[in-house]
Amino acid sequence: MSSIQHYEMKMEIRNGILGAEEDLGDCVDDLGKIKESTAVVELREKVNEVKIYVGGCGDYVMNYDEVLSRFGEGNAAVNYTGLRMANLFELSLFGSQYLLLFFLFCSLYRLQRC
Q1: Torsion, Cα of 41, 46, 50, 56 (10° steps)
Q2: 34 Cβ partners below 8 Å, 6+ apart?
Q3: Which of 25-29, 60-64, 81-85 has the highest mean pLDDT?
Q4: What's the mean pLDDT in 7-22?
Q5: Alpha helices, DSSP H, located in the chain
Q6: 4 with 56: CB under 8 angstroms?
Q7: What angle do CA 10, 15, 20 make, to 5 degrees?
Q8: d(CA 97, CA 20)
Q9: Where are the bilayer-spanning segments (predicted)?
Q10: Residue 74: CB partners within 8 Å, gap ≥ 6?
């Protein structure tokens, strides 16, 4: 999928979310026209909360590539590379020590045979 198609798909999703957000705003306005009661006020507050959450989802859709690169895939790739380099360093350090011990034991065995 090309980046243009990817962007168009994100815009289509974002437009759908914007439509839902507008519909929720209209619902809040219509609830404001109804005679005030405790139930209507609570319902209007809940619908307004949902509208805020839906708006946040739209922002996430447009910026999820950046979010993933900051907190997900990007850090995972860096951490994997760092872990791999640390493992290579430890392997070379401990490998050389084991090799030295092997040669010392071989030398000791050779001295005992003489």
Answers
A1: 90
A2: 40
A3: 25-29
A4: 86
A5: 3-33, 38-71, 73-113
A6: no
A7: 125
A8: 65
A9: 91-111
A10: 68
Helix, strand, coil percentages for the chain (3-state, nearest 5): 95, 0, 5
Domain extent listing, the chain:
3-113
For residue 98, the model assigns a pLDDT of 76
Percent of the chain with pLDDT over 90: 0
Q: What is the predicted pLDDT for the residue at 6?
A: 76
CA–CA dist 12, 17 (Å, integer): 9
> Within 10 Å of residue 45's Cβ, how many Cβ atoms?
12
Which amino acid, 83? L
Instruction: Look up residue 62 and give its amino acid.
Output: M
